[in-house]
Amino acid sequence: MKRIASIQDISCLGRCSLTVALPVISAMGVECAIVPTAVLSAHTAFPGFVSRDLTDQLPAIAAHWQQQNVHFDALYTGYIASVPQVQQVLDFFDAVKSPDTLLIVDPAMADHGKLYAGFGDDFPAAMARVVARADVALPNITEACLLTGTPYREDVDEGFARTLLQRVAALGVKQVVLTGVSFAPDRLGAMGYDSRTGTYFTAQGRRVPASFHGTGDIFAATVTGGLMRGMTLEQSSALAVEFVLACIDATACDPHAGWYGVEFEKALPLLCRRVQELAKSE
Ligand code: PXL
User: Fold this and answer.
1) Given a cut of 80, is residue 94 above it in pLDDT?
2) What are the backbone dihedrals phi and psi of residue 235, each rounded to the nearest 5 degrees, phi first?
3) 109 pocket-lining for ligand 1 (C-beta < 6 Å)
4) Which residue range is the domain that position 153 belongs to?
5) Is the CB of 36 under 6 A from ligand 1?
6) Is residue 15 a contact partner of residue 40, using CB atoms and an 8 Å limit?
7) How far, in Å, CA of 232 to CA of 234, rounded?
8) In what side-by-side order are the strands of the sheet with 3-11?
9) Contact 89, 80 (CB under 8 A)
10) 214: Cβ below 6 Å to ligand 1?
11) Helices (H), the chain
C-alpha cells in the first residue's frame, strides 16, 4: 500500500484540511500519515476562531520519523499557518523526502480574490517558496494570481488560464492544476498543465451556482489519492471534479449549516467504487 504524509492544519470544526484529507485518502486505499501544522477551534472563516501554531513540533516529528527510516510515496501540503512555518515545512521535506517521493502542494491561502483571515501580504511570497519545490501544485485562481503577482480577475477565459498555469509552472513546478476554472456558464472544474511536455488538459463538470467551503481541500486530497493509485494527473483531476460535485449534490442545503463544509461522507462510497474501477496500482 502506498504511504503519504499530509502536512496541514487540524480545523476542529468545519470540514477542511486534515479532517477531509484523512478520510478521503484512506477511502482511496492509501495510508495517510499526518503532520498537523496548527490546531484551530474552527477554520478561519468562523468568526472568533482560536489557533495554536505547531511550528515547533515539525522538526521534532521529522527527527523522529528519520530515526524510523520511514518511506513516503508522497508528501502533500495544504494550509500552512504562518510565514516562519514555511521554512519549517521546507526543512521537513528535506528531512523526510526520499528521491522518489512526490511533492504535492496545495497553496491553500486564499479564495474569491482575498487571502484567508490571519495572513498578511507577505504570505504569498513565502508560499511561492513551497510551490517552487512541488512536483504537482494545485492552486485556485486567486492563489495562482497571488503566487505570480498577476492581478486577480473573476472572468477567466482559456487564454488567461493558460497564462496562469505557465506562470505558476515558472516558479519551478513540473505539473500544475488550476481549480475553479469555467469556460462555459454551466460548467466548472479544473485545467492542468505539464511544463515538461507543454501539454494542457481540462476536467469539467456541471456548475452548481453556490460556493462551498473546503471543496479545494477535497479536490487536492482526491488528486493525491488518485496519483498514488497509479492514475494520471488528468484522470485524478477528472475523478476529483466528479467527487467534489457528488459531495455538493449530497449536501442538504441547510441555511443554518454556515461554514460546516460539504457532506462528503455521503459520497465516499462513490469514491471507493470509482477508485476500484480506475486504480492501476496497489
Ligand atoms: O479550506 C482551506 C482552509 C484550510 N485550513 C484553514 C482554513 C481554510 C480556509 O479558510 O481556514 C485553517
Assistant:
1) yes
2) -65, -40
3) no
4) 3-281
5) no
6) no
7) 5
8) 51-53, 31-40, 3-11, 74-77, 102-105, 136-137, 175-184, 187-194, 199-206
9) yes
10) yes
11) 17-27, 57-67, 83-96, 123-131, 141-148, 158-169, 215-228, 233-250, 268-278
Which atom number of ligand 1 is nearest to the Cα of residue 40? Answer: 12
The amino acid sitting at 162 is: R
Q: Scan for cell 485524478, then name that residue.
A: 236
Question: pLDDT per residue over 115-139, tens digit each?
Answer: 999 999 999 999 999 999 999 999 9
Domain harbouring 161, CATH code: 3.40.1190.20
Q: Does residue 217's CB lie within 6 angstroms of at least one atom of ligand 1?
A: yes
Q: What is the dihedral of CA 91, 96, 99, 105, to 10 degrees?
A: -60
Quote the CA–CA distance of 44 and 41 in Å, as a whole number. Answer: 9
Contact present, 154 and 113 (Cβ < 8 Å): yes
Cell 521537513 belongs to 92
Does ligand 1 come within 6 angstroms of the Cβ of 219? no
Residue pLDDT, tens place only, 12-47: 999 999 999 999 999 999 999 999 999 999 999 999
Task: Give 77 Cα–ligand 1 centroid separation in angstroms.
Answer: 12
Judge if the beta carbon of residue 11 lies within 6 A of ligand 1.
Answer: yes
Gap from CA of 138 to ligand 1 centroid (Å): 15
In angstroms, the Cα distances linking 270 to 28, 240, 252 are 11, 12, 17
Cα–Cα dist 77/108, whole Å: 9
Domain count, the chain: 1
